Queue: 3 jobs
Job 1
Amino acid sequence: MRIEREGYVDALTPILKQFLEERFGGISLDKLQSSEERRADYVCLDGALAIEIKTLEGDSSERMKNLSLELQKQSDYPLFLGGWPLNSVIKNMSNPHLLTKKAISRIGRPVVAHIKKANKQLAAHSKNMPHPQLTKILLLINEDHEIYQPQIVAQVAKQELERKGGNGFSYSDIHAVIYITERHVTLIDDQLIFPFTVIEGPAMNAEPWKRDLVQIFRDEWGSWAGKNLLNSDHYKCEFRTIEHVPSKMKRHELWALEYRRNPYLRSFTNDQLRDKFDENIVTTMLWGLKSSPCKMSSADRARNMEIFTHLQQEISVRGLPITFFKREKERELEAAKRLRLPQLVIDWLKNINVKSDEEIR
């Protein structure tokens, strides 16, 4: 399943603030004189619901870049063709489980920081604005970053809420974390379903009626926003990232997008994919080396480059290291035969040494 979109994307945080005010009688406490460390962002339902809003605004790219640089220093770091997603890199290394945990930890750092700060604010709010049946919620909002997948955010938040300190649970003033993202979606019965991720704090077990309030929040948000929601903590469901298609892109980016829309190589075995790669290399040599006995039109060259982009896309998804595609003379000769190239070309391929051949045209 693959879903894409185009156009301008509205910020989600202002929309949720409007929802709180219209459906829950939310009152913003931002204009109060007290410091933000001593209060929540919103009180709703006549003070019975305190909501602290935290937004995931950064995309973690710098942290993930640093992790990638660390991995490159390891002796088992795989050599690969083009750009690889991090999970493809990790699965080719010696301890993928440990490295996956490390990657999740890097992605989740903003989530942990928000939980720590929100717990202090909600604890102070309880003292400054007490209510006999106060429910305290951290509303975590993803501002359109694909890296903050619901499964990852839920895993990190659950781990933090279950963390214990010297006097019990470290974050006991957060009854639940509600994570909302519109960059991730699943498809059920041809309908787009957005995740509504709830991570309960330990205090929820002592006051289970608060779950009803969270469910009301979910139903009201879905109704108000016109969204089909799925409690992603209750269902084993894989949410996919929506791909945002820019209005302008480079030629190779368009080729890559077209392949993701129609991944025609997906049914190939790895060996068949390597055969296709060999054929592309042979064709590239024909138009790229000065000693080539054949000429190719500009259109044929462009098509060859387009196919190479498609191959890069498929190889990165599978996580096949470049060693799998190490060039071999016999394979290239077989590729030439499959392409039904003339004997003149086959003889040229037999004698050519690419490393010492003339410069590429």
Job 2
Amino acid sequence: MTRFVWEGVDGSVWDFADGPVRLTDDGIEGFGELEAEELTSNSSMSDGNRFQGVRWPEREMTLGLAINAGLPRNQWQACDRAFWNSVSATEYGTMHVFDVFNDVRHIAARFRSDNRQAHKIDPSFMGYSRVLVDFVADDPWFRGPTVLYEVDPPPADEDFFGPTGYGPPFFISSGTTVDATTLFNPGDLDAWPIWNQLGPSASFSFTVAGHTLAGEIAVPDGGRLELDTRPNRKTARLYAADGSYEDVFRLLDTFDFGGRIPKRATSPVDIVTVGTGTTLVSFEPLYKRGF
């Protein structure tokens, strides 16, 4: 059975399958495919339209809910107030959708309307109320669990002396080179990776499908360099151990943020670093449907 769990703006969690606020037979809408807005052009010189592409609007979702389901009648007022405190028109909560295999997708959403909730009988007398609640997701895509790949640091430096009389002692510097590693994106849309290079590290080069991010940026032990390639972000930040950060975008030698992982496909990745810090690459798969 599909389950809907609302994580409110106040941190409260509401399981609409097994809790004091439950789904009713009034409907579940807006969790499937979106209707695209078609972009076309036309001319008096030709019939019909010329298709230019599509734009995806915000996602509108509606759930029919019963408030104070299964609880004593005198608890309705407290339950009703607690639920409405969990939604806001200006703040985001999170709607989690569990499918029949208990896999979960989530989406950030705001409250939009209670559809002018009307009561035939005073709900405080009945001990429960029914309402159609509209939510809106300004970013319309559902997200799956974060996919994380980790490249471990190389072994510690070892002195190398060689045969006696063949030159001074030297050591092999720490470095990692991973060629032709692949990232798999299970989502319905292309995904944009987030890179994290942990310290200590002296330089890096990350390439996804031919698009490279590189630089000689020193990351101290306990620090972290984050490169976010998402189109609405595109940031390069060097974090200190205390959580403060410095914008280091200007220090990148190569800044091609176009490397994305195609939907339901793999993408080759090349990683080259100097240092003993771990390299992490992560992304959130995006889905067109809630389940």
Job 3
Amino acid sequence: MQSSWPTAISAPLVLAIFALLAAQLTLFNATVLDRRANFALGGLAVACALREPTWQHAIISASGGWLSEAFLYQFAMAGMSVVGAVNILTIGTVLGIGYRAGPLVGLGVISAALALICGSAARAEGVMIEQAAGWGALGFWMSLLPLTWWMDVLLVRICLAEFRKRVDARDFVVYGAGATFVLLLGGGFVCAPIAAIYQISGRDTVFARIQAAIDRDVLLYQAVLFAAVVSIPVVAHLADRLGIDRDSRHRRRLLPLWTDLTAACPEIVYHAPSPAALGSRYLLHRTVIEIRDCLRILSRYTEQDDAGPADEVMAFAIRIAHACAAKSRGEPPVGSAVPLPSTAEDVGGEIAELTALAACWTRARALAVAAARPLGPTA
């Protein structure tokens, strides 16, 4: 059975999932969880390629007709049994259940092998397994059922645990949709062996129609949803490298202020190279720290001016602009350090305050220059 998605959409989508897999293997393959996620993504990508019409026809043509549509379908479904075993390991880790990897993956391999053995008669007849009538078809679906339901039960447990912890409406929608999708997947696998039992006596039932409707696109939906989740760190990494992520944008707003302040206080600049692995967040935090150090030093180079602008941030910015000029001229400190007026309770609040200071910095510097400019001769 092939996917009902238009091949103009499904074929490029499968290619995009393989491209995402290549990116994942290159960028995120260091930890056990990374490797398990990549294995699951790879399994879904291969299974989708075996079911997607364009890819399926290309594979059959490349094999010289040795591979059949019936075999590719069975192989895709059997392979997902091994993927399910790996997913059970991952979900168990999230739930704090320490499953042993060897026996569980071995169970997945045995389940897949039994399914392919049971489906051999249908393949020999060139019949799709969901249309086959006989005990072999029943054995095929029963071989895959235990691990599928095991995984589904664990996924529902995660969704229920999240329901108990969260009250946000969006979270209820997300985890509710996840639980519904999992139940549909499990329901399809329950309907399959029931339909196979009736097909032994040649009876077509509603169970066969339900199983066919769910099974037609379930792999592609799984792959798209899982790829969307897995792609988040890849997209974040790409945005970081291109300098378009949120931290990079925040840092760009601070750079004009940082440039002027560190020109007056070059002694506080950390000149060691920035490790690329730390990314834009590290650079942003380093910029914030260096601006703060500069402000503390420069606030000692001017006296507090109570007659300045009513805007506290603008008044401080003008004072620091005067201080930059004074320190650059080599003048000694004249006052005590006065920090930027702040109510920040975390790093995000501090970044917002410095961004507000940076926003008025150009005007403050112009006002400071104008105030320091000597008046011309009077008549």
